Amino acid sequence: MDKYIHTFSSVNWEAVLPIIIPIIVIQLILLAVALFSLKKAPATRGPKLLWALIIIFVSILGPVLYFVIGKEEQ
């Protein structure tokens, strides 16, 4: 256990944060847009509740899968 704590504390956060923060921001924007689109969609390929769970819990891939597979053509 101490090995992992030591490894985590030895990370150079000044070098890592400029990479991680944009990824997190993009993820949150993608999540919000996908959920908003799902709410406004009159119909989807599959139950809306299932798509909401996929969007929320499958990280970056969930919203992408919704836009590629779940959203019906308008």
UniProtKB/TrEMBL annotation:
Instruction: Write the protein's name.
Output: PLDc_N domain-containing protein
Report the source organism.
Paenibacillus albiflavus
Tree of life domain: Bacteria
Task: Give the transmembrane region(s).
Answer: 15-37, 49-69
Keywords linked to the UniProt accession: Cell membrane, Membrane, Transmembrane, Transmembrane helix
Where mainly found? membrane
The UniProt entry lists membrane topology as: Multi-pass membrane protein
**Cellular compartment(s):** Cell membrane
Q: Pfam families from the entry?
A: PLDc_N (PF13396)
> Mind naming one GO cellular-component term on file for this protein?
plasma membrane
Residue ranges constituting the Cardiolipin synthase N-terminal domain according to the UniProt record? 29-70
